[in-house]
Amino acid sequence: MYKSKMGLITLVSVTIAALIAICYEFSWVNFSPSFLMAVRWIVATVLIVNALVRKNLTTWILTCMILGIFVGLDFPNIAISLQPLSKGFIKLVKTIVGPILFATLVYGIAGHSDLKQVGRMAWKSMLYFFCATTCAIFIGLGAINLTKAGVGVDVAHMPHEELPKTQISNDAQILETLPDHVHPVYKFTAFFRDLFPENIVKAVYDNQVLQIVVFSVLFGIGLAMVDEKKRKPLVDFTESLSETMFKFTNLIMYFAPIGVGAAMAFTVGHLGVDILKNLFMLLATLYLALLGFLTFVLLPVALYLKIPVLKFINAIKEPVSIAFATTSSDAALPKAMSAMEKFGVPRKIVSFVIPTGYSFNLDGTSLYLSLAAIFVAQAAGIHLTFGEQLMIAFTLMITSKGVAAVPRASLIILIATADQFGLPTFVIAAILGIDELMDMARTSVNVIGNCLATVVVAKWEGEFDEEAPYRDDHGQPELEG
């Protein structure tokens, strides 16, 4: 009863504060800065009390995200000084990725010795990934052509940030010596070359998720071929390691509210809110396009497969909140894996589909890249035919593999593609200021898409536990009412 009353007080407080903020931003009412600051910290106090009452990790994460915004607005220098906390949280989570992928994949393959299922999961995952990312690309193209957010934008008078440097790789030097018609062949074979790790320790150190997956799958297949007596000790070790790493994840997640709050504070503190006014149409187009992708692609898939949508949303809210605030899918990976296993997807499917999806199923990133590339052309006054737009979009889809783990790595891809198609990079420098805000949305959609992909493959394999979403935290069926 007390929780519901506190929830109502929180809702009313946040609603009133939001209405005051809207009235101030649209100059309907001229509030003093000190009054607005007081309102924010009254709401902050209510949110903290609500979180203390609920004693729920998700509530604390969302509360700290809002507190981070308030700190960024009112104390920007302190907010910027909090960045090491968010960096520390991401580093801590990344220590989990290599061991948890290796342990769960090897145990899933060697522990059950069903090598045919590995092949089935691979082609089913790839087919679903291809369909999902293709839909995302076309929605991105449709949205930017509909809103024409780049037309008439005065990029010359916007604040320009320094672009990340695109290194000239050995591949680029080789491509310069080859005729244009064989470039796609070389890029395709180079992509397969980069799938394989030259050193598994180096792959873990560099956070090359796909290379870790390839090594683990091959290791698991090799272990499955060994006779039972010699296989069992390693299988038992990987089972124990995977259980330990999931418990380790739970411990680290207690630090998530601090890491997430610090990340939000830094974002607001060093960007401010004025930048939104300059590029509001681009930001709004991206968010609406991503919302359209969730509504018209992922939701129908979930409804068709009879996935309990509200239970699914409840299951993924923590990893999505972490992804949104940190702008790194990697930070959400361990929690997403444990959440999907709890939701009813077998561990062997979760440990294969989610890491593979981090390279091949970047729905949010694919949509953003197609949208941003056309925005650059519009802002520069360059007219692109539909065929040219498709060429850019599918080039981005191929070159964007594996960028999910690194915050804002998609910028490098966008700059390289702009150079390739003769688009001006100075426009990208202008939109770099809000890239962090766009990265929050596209990273969240990446995580949602990959979580749903695990359920799709599990349903396809006939191994989804239909009762699991309706169990409570202790494995007991939830009581109605």
UniProtKB/TrEMBL annotation:
Keyword rRNA-binding: no
Keywords: Cell membrane, Membrane, Symport, Transmembrane, Transmembrane helix, Transport
Coiled coil feature spans: none
Gene3D superfamilies: Sodium:dicarboxylate symporter
Principal place of residence: membrane
Membrane-spanning parts: 33-53, 60-80, 92-110, 122-144, 209-226, 251-273, 279-305, 367-386, 406-434
Membrane protein topology class: Multi-pass membrane protein
A matching Pfam family: SDF
Subcellular localization: Cell membrane
Protein name (Swiss-Prot/TrEMBL): Cation:dicarboxylase symporter family transporter
